[in-house]
Amino acid sequence: MSNHSAEPSVVRAEDVRVDLGTGPILRGIDLQVPRGQALALLGANGSGKTTLVKALIGLTPLASGRVELFGTDVSARRSVPWPRIGYVPQRVSSSPSMSATAEEVVASGLLTNRRLRPGPGSRRQVRDALAEMGLAERARDSVHLFSGGQQQRVLIARALIRQPDLLVIDEPLSGIDQASKTALAASLRRLHRAGTTIIVVLHELAELRPLIGRAVTLAQGQVVQDGPPPVHQPAEPGHHHPDALPGTVFNGYPVHGPGGRR
User: What segment(s) does the record annotate as region Disordered (predicted)?
Assistant: First the structure.
């Protein structure tokens, strides 16, 4: 990971508001994330968690407010250091018709609008990223043969291949088995110890509780709690909102909303 100890907060959001068709989804969010922090975004479905992380990395437009990544306004897209940012959307089980191997999926993390095929040395990068996730021996296996937890780890490896300083993950523990949850938690702890700043969307802390140093809880698009991880997480009723605009792209690959692929 890069050493940028003198820089401002990794993420800074000021009075962020997002409207997505049905009305306001985020209402005046203020958030600063310092380098090296492991932060959990908590809240019920519809509270605005996914919308917030997409707003933070420029995938969802702001109705008002401002977001900075590494000190650069996210609206100045060409100036944002995107290779320093890894994003893992919510996992969707792959179809048997999708025969991409784990190494092919991970290598796609190196592609951009200007770089349509991996460069020299990419195979080593791919293997290192898969090894970090404990999947080096399955590099040439088709992803549709993997368990849900293994698929999630492949997506994280894709985000890690550029060695990002900021890793943003949406619901990594959803719908996976206990062994995979434990393995994912161990991998994220290793990354955090290496200096990676982590923002993770969660319904509950569960296996990631030892990792999390700060928890921000959302309800109805507003921050209702910001501080140490809660001992108990009361259920928060909410209404589901579309959390993405169709056709958005991050680091060269498409990101879709809850009604389609992600």
Answer: 224-262
